[in-house]
UniProtKB/TrEMBL annotation:
Keywords: FAD, Flavoprotein, Isomerase
EC number: 5.4.99.9
The protein, known as: UDP-galactopyranose mutase
UDP-galactopyranose mutase C-terminal domain mapped to chain residues: 150-349
GO cellular component terms attached to this protein's record: cytosol
Keyword Flavoprotein: yes
GO molecular function, one term: UDP-galactopyranose mutase activity
Annotated Gene3D superfamilies: NAD(P)-binding Rossmann-like Domain
Names of the cofactor(s): FAD
Annotated family: Belongs to the UDP-galactopyranose/dTDP-fucopyranose mutase family.
Class in the EC hierarchy, top level: isomerase
Length: 369
């Protein structure tokens, strides 16, 4: 056999791991996957803490999709714990259902509206826009200014470090407004978390004998040292090109963890996640055991505080950033020896299922070597 690998994949998150598994098992190719972190799974990594509580180390990850193909594929590597995510938002001293629905409005204003009356309630408050271009537009054209200020503006400013009027409409358009009492955060056909955790899922994805894994390895450290035929890069696209056109802004997160005693295996919060759009530096608090279903005498609550510096988590969707990304994308098109994949390389706010779908599609179209 020729020395080296057929494919070098940078990044052991969903994009890189799914591609590695497909290339190894379907094409029978030799794959080396590397990651600068000391673990698999990217931001979906989970692990047991010193008390034995399973924790999503980079914030809550709830898998949800309408794609039968994506769900069936991942189900080959994990069983699932069915889970329907629910969120409450702290507004005016009350924990209200979110996304906004019929109960949210009735509880907030002390009303007893029906679904038809709620539709009229929103219509009377909605602000007209010729073009829905910004995150602010996407909300005020649906529910009006007051609800925008109470539920969205503060959260969006903390999360993205910019005013909603500066961000693309997709930021808040992701969050529906409902006329019924459905308080689930997601309504996808398939919802849940891996029964044995995300890390175990990734271990099974990468267990093929054609796949070799190197952790705590930066791409810059092995570039030019390990022979390979084609590169798949899932890191930040601006980093790959040495920031030659300037840095693409990303939002990062700082996590604060509280471990609490829970007699008789009780829970700390009424729902898994509580959003705090207005009066705290953090955006949300999530109780891990509500996601995992783990029985334990302690419970871990993770608080997320967005920040500008640190590991890149979220591409910031606004026109100036998109223009810079398009310039990098043109450079990427000229590199026939490299394929770019995943949230950071695509500078898109993808959900996990969207990343998996992209990787499955790429696995069918990647140049053979």
């Amino acid at each position: 056999m020729a020395p080296g690998f057929d494919y070098l994949i940078v990044g052991a998150g969903f994009a890189g791991s799914v591609l590695a598994e497909r290339l190894a098992s379907v094409r029978n190719r030799r794959v080396l996957i590397i990651d600068r972190r000391a673990h698999l799974g990217g931001n979906a990594f989970d692990a047991y803490d010193e008390h034995g509580v399973l924790v999503h180390r980079y914030g809550p990850h709830i898998f949800h999709t309408n794609s039968e193909r994506v769900f069936a594929y991942l189900s080959r590597f994990t069983a699932w714990r069915p889970y329907q995510h629910r969120v409450r938002t702290l507004v005016d001293g009350r924990l209200l259902p979110f996304p906004i629905n019929l109960d949210t409005i009735n509880e907030l204003y002390g009303l007893s509206l029906s679904s038809l009356e709620l539709e009229q309630f929103f219509a009377e408050r909605a602000e007209a826009r010729e073009v829905v271009a910004t995150a602010e537009d996407a909300v005020v054209t649906k529910v009006g200014r007051e609800l925008f200020e109470k539920f969205f503006r503060g959260y969006t400013r903390k999360q993205w470090g910019r005013e909603p009027s500066e961000l693309d409409a997709s930021v808040t358009a992701r969050v529906p407004v409902r006329l019924n009492r459905d308080d689930r955060y997601f309504t996808d056909t398939y919802q849940g978390v891996p029964k044995e955790g995300y890390t175990r899922l990734f271990e099974r994805l990468l267990a093929h004998p054609n796949i070799k894994v190197m952790l705590q390895t930066d791409f810059c450290e092995v570039k030019g040292l390990i022979p390979y035929k084609h590169l798949v890069y899932t890191g930040p696209i601006d980093s790959f090109f040495g920031f030659s056109l300037g840095r693409l802004p990303y939002r990062s997160l700082r996590f604060h963890q509280e471990v609490l005693d829970t007699p008789e295996q009780g829970l700390v919060q009424p729902v898994a996640t509580i959003n705090t759009p207005n009066d705290t530096p953090y955006t949300r608090a999530t109780e891990m055991r509500q996601l995992t279903g783990q029985k334990h005498h302690k419970s871990v609550v993770i608080f997320e505080e967005p920040q500008a510096e640190g590991d890149p988590y979220y591409p910031i969707p606004c026109p100036d950033n998109q223009a810079l990304y398009e310039a990098y994308r043109q450079l990427a098109r000229e590199r026939k020896d490299v394929t770019f994949a995943g949230r950071l390389a695509s500078y898109r706010y993808y959900n996990m299922d969207q990343v998996v779908a992209q990787a499955l599609k790429l696995a069918d179209t990647l140049p053979d070597v």
